[in-house]
Each structure stands twice: as structure tokens, then as C-alpha cells.
């Protein structure tokens, strides 16, 4: 038992029962009771009476023996019940303790839950506060946005410019008050409608065309639009812009229109004034030129008579003054045309070398009259035909030469003419330099200004009207060229004129007279060979084609009647310089002319140094150079022909990516061979193109860089022959980088090549359609 508040004897008895059991414990207790009664009775009698009485003692013992079992039974039963009670109490105590512990745990958990609920409540309270603040901020932002939207809407509506927005389906999604006013409809009547439902039919086609252009190009477009508003035409400068999302997709169109009616009216009034001024200048020029021509004519007649020195001096002064006044009239008329933007350039096919000779004759005369030296320098191939306005260009050069002579007292005037081949094409560069007084540096920036005259050495204004150089610059600009000046005061000036050259054939170069030639053409690119053969056969010659150097040498050995060898410098087996060297090794062929065909004339001349050749033609072959070569070697003259020649106009190039093509080469070949023959050549390129691309890919996969370079060279020549300029330039890059660049770069070039060929052929087809 666990409760130690019981008496010791009860504990002992309980322990005995628990240890020995009830029977043994009862027997022990019974024995103890008898012994105790015997001892106690004996002690009682002995103490009380002084002697022991056996009968009495036995009676007591007997009584104890009879009563003890009952007492022991009651005692054991009581102890049993007492144990059960204590056991129940002990169990109850334990349960109470467990219950108390559970209660404590529950109270602890409850306290924790209460704390957590308090924290959750505080968090909820804070979240509610945050939400309230966020709601307040959102409301504030919405109010600000609403205010900004109202402000923007007010600005847009109050703008004098019209504004509208249409989605990618052409449906109006927004506009301002000005657009409503112009259209004569409210926004509710406009929004949700298409352009077909809004604009009149006579206006609709232009709207759809410009919309489509903006959508396709993703570029802004500005046009002047006249629209009927309240019975009167109002003009707007309308700017259409593409509306692009973050992914770069076209999702709509923005339109902004500014009323330029007053500007248009002012421009029309100004145009009327210009016309009136032009009529006045033309009338004045006519009325003044009549007596001026009389003065010039009579003065010339006087100069042819016998005059004394003073009279001749006076006549020369009169003649020079009249000529100067005539030049001023020309400048005034041109100035009027410049103001009205009616300065026309009439381009004709002229021989550049002949033009320069005419200028030289004029310059020699006027410099000789003043006692000055005149030098002429020519650089580059100038014996060519180009589309130029000889009158305007002559006016420019004569004006500059006159100025050079006017401001040079001693020394010389130099005319330098050069042809420069630039990436964008050939240019004619003319420099007029003198050893005169020069122009102060601070005056150079104003020398081309209208009515400006630089002061002379004495500080006074120079002689002249001050419009000559301004008109000269305008003429050069109209010819798409440029003019610059360099000068050192006291040493002289140099004016540089640069004019782009549009090469063409001579107006009479269509038929040929002379003996028939037997020509060996050595060319490894079939397309180049076909075009060269067509050019030569058209001129009445017989052509023998060799594709390799070995074939060429065999033909030279076996064909006795060869008149000419046109030799490509880069062949698949042996190069052209080796072929030429072996031909010249046999003295039997010393008189057989050899002309090199090459993309780089200077490089070919270096390779053939020491080998006797009769010239070099650049590829693609220029018909003018070909004819000149034949004329120089065989005295083959060209017969005149009045058939019209093809001239490519800006209109023909309007919707074509002309930068992808070599227009001059195509124009040259079409004029020489005809459109049908040239189209056949372009079709041959289309046929050969997949083969070239496959060969390039195969050589790249096998690691054969030399083969890659060789095929790129062939492709370059073939593309150049049909005027695919962009393809030719890219093939040139592939050829020169074939050895040194990585496989990844060569593979990327192949992918770019395919795109460039597709784009170039598409542009060529469109261009040829324009020529039909």
C-alpha cells in the first residue's frame, strides 16, 4: 500500500496477509492470540493474586481459543475492506492526479490557443489596416488616373489637330473632338465602325492603301490629305503610325492630322507669284537679250575690222561686258527655276572623254586671252558613255573655269578629270584649281551662298553678281552630285565637283561591221560563258568554248584559225596565267591575241606581268569595253542604228529593291543581247543555283576548303553576269574567307546566301517585268 497514514500494526497485518495469505495469517494470529491470552492471564493472576491457577488460566485460554477466530475473521475482513478502500482511494488519487495533469495540459493548450488567437487577432487587425490603406491608395490612384485620363482627354479634345485610333481590323476605337468635327459625326457614330462605313468611296482606296503600307512596313507615313468639310476643302498633314505591342506585333493604327489649309493656300499663292515672276523674268530676258545679241554681234564685227589699239581695247571691253551680262541672264533664269524647283536635268548618252575635250578647247581659249597657262590631267577610264546633262554640266565647268581665270592674274589654271569606282558605282570627279588670289578661310563657308561675293585683296567686293556659285551648286545638287572648295589665301583655290555616272551604251552601238572572228572563250562558269557567247555571236563572231585550261591548250594546238583568246584567269585545273605562259612558249602563237577576263584587272595584270597579252576585260563584261577592245585589235567599226535604247527610269525601280541588283549591267546586257536572251540567262542561273549551293554544302561537310572557295568563285561570277549584285558581293566574301574562317561562319554564310539569292531573284523578276 502506498498510503503511510495507517497504524503500524495494520500495516504489518496487511503486509502479512499480502505475503502469507489469509489462512496462514489467520493461523499465525490465532496462535498469537492464544499465546497472548496465556501469558496475560498468567501475569494477571500472578500479579493480582500472587499465585497461578491452572484452571482459570486454561479457562481464559479456552475462551480466547473460542473467541479469537471470530475476532481474527472480523479483523482480516476489515483489513481486506480497508485494503480495497485504500486501493480504490489510491486509484482515485492517481486518476485525480492524471486528471489534474490533463487539466493542466488542457489549460496550457488553451492558454496557447488564446495567445495564438490574440496574435491572429492582432495580425488580422494589422491586415485589415493594411487592406484599408491599400484600398485608400487604390482609390487615390484611381482618382489620379481618372484625373489624368480626364486631363489627357481634355488635351486631346482641345487639340487643334485631329486624332483617331483603329485596331488591326480597321475598326475605329477612339478619336478626339477635332476628328468628330471633320467627319461630321459624334464619337458614338464613329467608334466600332470600319473605314468602309465612314469614308466616301472616292477617298477609301487611298486610305486602305496607306493603311496597308503602314501595317506591312511598321513605319510611320506622312501624307497631305484634302477632305470636304462643310462644303469647303480643308487640307491636313496626316501622319499614320503603327501601334506595336511588346512582342512586336501590329495591333492597330494611330492617326494624327494637322490642319494645313492656310499653308496650302499660301503655297498656292506663292506658286502663282513664282509663275508671275517667271513670266516677268522670261519677258525681261527676251527683251534684254535682243539688244544684247545686237551688241555682241556688232562688237564681233568691229573686232574683225581694222582698229587701232585703243579702239580694239574698247571693243574687247564691250564684248566682255556683253558676254558677262549674258551669263548673268542665264544665272538669273536658272535661279528662278531653282526657286520654283523646276530645274530639270535632261540626261543623254554622251561620251565623257569627248565632253572633256570640248571643255578643254573652251578653257584653252579663255586662259590664253589672259596670258595664263592651262593644264589638263585625266585619270581612269574616261572613254565611256554615261547618262549626263551635257548643257548643265558644261555650264558648271565653264562657270568654275571662268571664275578661276577671273581671279588669277599670273600662273595657271588646271583642270583634272578622274573616274573613281566606288561601292555605290562609278563617279566623275572634276577639279578646277588656280594660282590666283585665293579665298580667306572665314569666307569659305559662305562662298556658295546666294548673292554673296567674297572680298578681293583690297577688301572690296569681288566683281560679279554673287549668284554664279549658288546656281552652280544647285545644278550639281540636281545632278545628285556635290561641290566643295579648298583655298589658301594668296596661293589659289580648288573647286571639286563629284557627279555619279550612270553608264550606258552609245546611241549608235547596235550593229557592227567588220570581219568575222573565230574566238576561243576560256570560261569555267557556264552562265558567264553563255552570256559572253551571246555578246560575241550577236556581233557576228564564231565562239569556241573551253571550260578548263587543259581544254584551252588543246584547242589552241588543234585549231589553226583562231583569231583571239578570251582567257578567264581563275580556272578549275590550271590558272589563266599558266595557260597564257604555255601559249606564249610556242613561237607559232606569238601573233595570237590574248585578252584576260577577270574580276580584278589590276590583280590580273600583276599575275600576267612579263607575259605578252593584248588587254584585260573586267567581269561581268561591259559591252562598251568589249567593242572598244575589238575595235582596237581588229579595227571593227560600229555601224549607226536609230533603234531606241533601253533607259531604266526611276518609275521602273519604284517598287523594286534596286540595291540588290546591278542595274547598269542588266541595262547594258539587255540593250546588247535583247530581253529574251537575258531572261534565258537568268533562267540558267536559277537552274545552276541549287547545284552551286549543294556543292558548297558538300565541300563544307567534307572539310574541303579549297573546293568551297572554288565554288564560291564560280557563284560570284555567275551572279555578277545576271546583275545579282548583292549575291555577288556575298559570294565574294565567301570566297575570300573560305580558308581562314571557322566552319560555323561558313555554314552561316550558306544560310545567308540562300536568302540573298531568293531576294535577288525576286527583285530581278520584278525588274524584268517592268522592262517588258
TrEMBL record:
Limits of the Response regulatory domain: 518-634
Membrane-spanning intervals of the chain: 27-47, 53-76
Reactions the enzyme catalyzes: ATP + protein L-histidine = ADP + protein N-phospho-L-histidine
4-aspartylphosphate modifications at: 568
Listed EC numbers: 2.7.13.3
UniProt GO molecular function: protein histidine kinase activity
Record flagged with keyword Transferase: yes
Pfam families per UniProt: HATPase_c (PF02518), HisKA (PF00512), Hpt (PF01627), PAS_4 (PF08448), Response_reg (PF00072)
Residues covered by the HPt domain: 674-772
Span of domain Histidine kinase: 283-503
Domain PAC positions: 219-272
Topology with respect to the bilayer: Multi-pass membrane protein
Modified residues (Phosphohistidine): 713
InterPro entries, per database record: CheY-like_superfamily, HATPase_C_sf, HATPase_dom, His_kinase_dom, HisK_dim/P_dom, HisK_dim/P_sf, HPT_dom_sf, PAS
Keyword tags: ATP-binding, Cell inner membrane, Cell membrane, Kinase, Membrane, Nucleotide-binding, Phosphoprotein, Transcription, Transcription regulation, Transferase, Transmembrane, Transmembrane helix, Two-component regulatory system
Location relative to the cell: Cell inner membrane
Residues in PAS domain copies: 148-202
SMART domains: HATPase_c, HisKA, PAS, REC
Name of this protein: Aerobic respiration control sensor protein
Organism: Pseudoalteromonas marina
Amino acid at each position: 500500500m502506498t498510503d503511510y497514514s495507517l497504524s503500524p500494526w495494520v500495516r504489518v497485518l496487511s503486509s502479512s496477509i499480502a505475503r502469507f495469505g489469509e489462512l496462514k495469517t489467520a493461523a499465525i494470529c490465532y496462535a498469537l492470540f492464544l499465546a497472548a491470552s496465556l501469558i496475560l492471564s498468567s501475569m494477571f493472576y500472578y500479579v493480582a493474586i500472587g499465585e497461578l491457577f491452572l484452571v482459570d488460566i486454561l479457562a481464559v485460554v479456552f475462551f480466547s481459543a473460542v473467541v479469537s477466530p471470530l475476532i481474527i475473521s472480523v479483523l482480516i475482513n476489515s483489513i481486506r475492506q480497508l485494503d480495497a478502500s485504500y486501493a480504490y482511494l489510491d486509484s482515485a488519487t492517481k486518476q485525480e492526479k492524471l486528471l489534474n495533469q490533463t487539466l493542466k495540459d488542457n489549460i496550457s493548450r488553451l492558454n496557447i490557443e488564446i495567445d495564438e488567437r490574440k496574435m491572429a487577432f492582432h495580425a488580422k487587425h494589422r491586415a485589415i489596416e493594411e487592406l484599408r490603406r491599400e484600398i485608400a491608395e487604390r482609390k487615390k490612384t484611381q482618382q489620379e488616373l481618372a484625373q489624368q485620363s480626364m486631363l489627357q482627354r481634355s488635351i486631346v479634345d482641345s487639340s487643334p489637330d485631329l486624332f483617331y485610333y483603329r485596331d488591326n481590323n480597321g475598326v475605329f476605337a477612339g478619336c478626339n473632338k477635332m476628328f468628330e468635327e471633320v467627319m461630321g459625326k459624334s464619337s458614338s457614330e464613329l467608334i466600332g465602325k470600319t473605314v468602309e462605313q465612314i469614308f466616301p468611296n472616292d477617298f477609301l482606296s487611298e486610305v486602305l492603301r496607306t493603311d496597308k503600307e503602314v501595317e506591312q512596313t511598321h513605319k510611320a507615313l506622312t501624307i497631305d490629305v484634302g477632305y470636304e468639310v462643310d462644303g469647303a476643302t480643308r487640307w491636313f498633314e496626316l501622319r499614320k503610325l503603327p501601334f506595336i505591342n511588346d512582342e512586336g506585333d501590329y495591333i492597330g493604327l494611330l492617326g494624327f492630322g494637322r490642319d494645313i489649309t492656310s499653308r496650302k493656300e499660301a503655297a498656292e499663292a506663292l506658286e502663282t507669284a513664282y509663275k508671275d515672276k517667271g513670266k516677268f523674268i522670261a519677258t525681261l530676258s527676251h527683251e534684254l537679250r535682243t539688244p544684247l545679241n545686237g551688241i555682241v554681234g556688232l562688237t564681233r564685227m568691229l573686232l574683225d575690222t581694222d582698229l587701232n589699239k585703243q579702239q580694239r581695247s574698247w571693243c574687247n571691253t564691250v564684248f566682255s561686258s556683253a558676254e558677262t551680262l549674258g551669263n548673268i541672264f542665264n544665272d538669273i533664269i536658272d535661279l528662278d527655276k531653282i526657286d520654283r524647283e523646276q530645274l530639270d536635268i535632261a540626261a543623254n548618252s554622251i561620251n565623257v572623254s569627248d565632253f572633256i575635250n570640248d571643255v578643254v578647247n573652251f578653257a584653252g581659249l579663255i586662259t590664253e586671252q589672259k596670258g595664263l597657262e592651262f593644264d589638263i590631267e585625266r585619270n581612269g577610264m574616261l572613254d565611256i558613255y554615261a547618262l549626263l546633262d551635257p548643257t548643265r554640266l558644261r555650264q558648271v565647268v565653264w562657270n568654275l573655269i571662268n571664275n578661276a581665270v577671273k581671279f588669277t592674274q599670273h600662273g595657271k589654271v588646271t583642270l583634272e578629270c578622274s573616274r573613281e569606282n566606288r561601292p555605290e558605282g562609278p563617279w566623275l570627279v572634276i577639279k578646277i584649281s588656280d594660282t590666283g588670289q585665293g579665298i580667306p578661310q572665314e569666307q569659305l563657308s559662305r562662298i556658295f551662298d546666294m548673292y554673296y561675293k567674297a572680298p578681293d585683296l583690297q577688301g572690296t567686293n569681288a566683281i560679279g553678281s554673287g549668284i554664279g556659285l549658288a546656281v552652280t551648286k544647285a545644278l550639281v545638287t540636281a545632278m545628285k552630285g556635290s561641290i566643295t572648295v579648298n583655298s589658301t589665301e594668296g596661293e589659289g583655290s580648288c573647286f571639286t565637283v563629284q557627279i555619279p555616272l550612270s553608264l550606258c551604251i552609245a546611241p549608235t552601238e547596235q550593229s557592227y561591221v567588220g570581219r568575222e572572228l573565230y574566238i576561243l572563250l576560256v570560261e569555267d562558269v557556264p552562265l558567264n560563258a553563255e552570256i559572253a557567247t551571246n555578246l560575241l555571236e550577236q556581233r557576228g563572231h564564231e565562239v569556241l568554248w573551253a571550260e578548263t585550261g587543259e581544254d584551252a591548250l588543246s584547242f589552241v594546238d588543234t585549231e589553226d584559225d583562231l583569231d583571239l583568246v578570251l582567257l578567264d584567269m581563275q580556272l578549275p585545273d590550271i590558272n589563266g596565267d599558266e595557260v597564257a605562259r604555255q601559249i606564249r612558249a610556242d613561237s607559232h602563237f606569238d601573233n595570237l591575241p590574248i585578252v584576260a577576263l577577270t574580276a580584278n584587272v589590276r590583280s590580273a595584270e600583276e599575275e600576267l606581268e612579263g607575259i605578252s597579252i593584248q588587254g584585260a576585260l573586267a567581269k561581268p563584261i561591259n559591252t562598251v569595253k568589249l567593242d572598244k577592245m575589238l575595235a582596237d585589235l581588229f579595227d571593227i567599226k560600229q555601224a549607226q542604228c536609230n533603234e531606241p535604247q533601253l533607259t531604266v527610269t526611276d518609275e521602273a525601280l519604284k517598287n523594286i529593291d534596286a540595291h540588290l541588283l546591278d542595274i547598269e549591267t542588266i541595262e547594258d546586257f539587255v540593250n546588247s543581247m535583247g530581253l529574251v536572251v537575258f531572261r534565258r540567262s537568268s533562267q540558267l542561273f536559277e537552274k545552276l543555283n541549287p547545284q552551286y549551293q549543294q556543292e558548297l554544302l558538300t565541300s563544307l561537310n567534307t572539310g574541303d576548303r579549297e573546293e568551297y572557295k572554288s565554288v564560291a568563285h564560280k557563284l560570284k561570277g555567275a551572279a555578277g553576269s545576271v546583275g545579282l549584285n548583292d549575291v555577288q558581293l556575298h559570294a565574294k566574301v565567301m570566297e575570300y574567307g573560305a580558308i581562314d574562317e571557322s566552319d560555323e561562319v561558313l555554314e552561316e554564310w550558306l544560310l545567308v546566301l540562300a536568302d540573298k539569292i531568293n531576294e535577288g531573284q525576286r527583285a530581278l523578276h520584278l525588274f524584268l517585268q517592268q522592262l517588258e
